[in-house]
Every structure is written in structure tokens, then in C-alpha cells.
Design a protein that fits this description.
This protein has about 170 residues and is of the alpha+beta class. It has four helices and twelve strands; from the N terminus they run βββββββαββαββααβ.
Length: about 170
């Protein structure tokens, strides 16, 4: 059984461009995926009130810092264009701008899939990290195999550290 799963996310300052999410299991690199950490200025055509996509405010870019994951949640009953069919990795801030943003009211950040969009094939989010649906399936499969029983892991949470950095 894996002792440590770490998702290292490296996002460019230009958040219109995807960055990289690398999966390390027990200190060994296992996979890399393209990921977008761009916030939204509008939701359903309505302005979010965050035109510069400040990471510490609602709908902003994904805040940098460290997170832990309390688990993977099903997205089967959620809008597939927004979340995709392969579940979402929940994120809980533990340090950095991520923790500041959470203390100021930002919650519900996740890693998830979704429909293609205008930012190099990715859609913006409300501050989450978005993978394409194929990569999200690969990530959840990898996280399930990094631990014990996949069904138990889905309900009990997984031991995942996520570090989001910007270059």
C-alpha cells in the first residue's frame, strides 16, 4: 500500500495557459497531466465581481499553497460540462494563499474534468483545477490503485497532498 501520494501542480503566471500536475506515489513520479488553474470573470453571463480573478476572492484563479484531500467525490449527478463523469478530488487548504483564501470564505475547491473550452482546450472554473476528462479518469484510477480498496477509498478519503506553485 502506498504511504504517500503527492500531487505537484505548477501553474504559469498567465493563467490562460495550462500548467502541469505531476503525481508522485511514495516519492516516485507516476504520471503528468496538463491542468488549468484559471478562474472565471462571469458565470452564466453574470459577472462574478472578481474581474482580475484574484485567487483569494470568489471565482478567482486557483490559490497557490498546500492542500490535503479528504477524498474523491462522485460527479455523476453534477453538470457533466462543468465537472465531467470521473469524480472530483476535494481540496482542503492547509497553508499559503490557499489557506488565506479559505479563511476569507473560498471553499469547494477541487480537481475535476469537464467539457473542452477556449483556454488551450480547457474551460475556466470558479477556482478549481481542471483536467480534461480522459486525464481525470487516469488520475482517479491512479489514486485508487495507490491505496487500498477503491470503494472504501472513495467514501473514507485518500491521503493526498497537493502543492500549487506558480512560475
Amino acid at each position: 500500500m502506498a504511504q504517500d501520494v503527492h500531487l505537484n501542480v505548477l501553474l504559469p503566471r498567465d493563467r490562460d495557459t495550462p500548467g502541469w500536475l505531476r503525481v508522485d506515489v511514495d516519492g516516485v513520479p507516476r504520471a503528468e497531466f496538463r491542468v488549468l488553474g484559471r478562474g472565471s470573470t462571469k458565470v452564466g453571463g453574470i459577472p462574478t465581481g472578481n474581474p482580475k480573478r484574484s485567487p483569494i476572492a470568489y471565482a478567482g484563479n486557483t490559490p497557490t499553497g498546500s492542500y490535503e484531500s479528504p477524498g474523491i467525490v462522485s460527479t455523476a449527478d453534477w453538470p457533466q460540462d462543468s465537472y465531467g463523469p470521473w469524480g472530483a478530488v476535494k481540496l482542503k487548504a492547509v497553508e499559503g494563499d490557499a489557506l488565506l483564501a479559505e479563511r476569507l470564505g473560498r471553499t469547494g475547491l477541487m480537481i475535476h474534468g469537464g467539457a473542452r473550452g477556449p483556454f488551450h482546450g480547457y474551460r475556466s472554473t470558479l477556482g478549481c483545477l481542471r483536467l480534461n476528462n480522459f486525464d481525470m479518469k487516469q488520475l482517479t484510477d491512479l489514486l485508487f490503485t495507490a491505496g487500498e480498496d477503491p470503494q472504501r477509498r472513495r467514501s473514507d478519503g485518500i491521503s493526498v497532498r497537493v502543492t500549487v506553485c506558480q512560475f
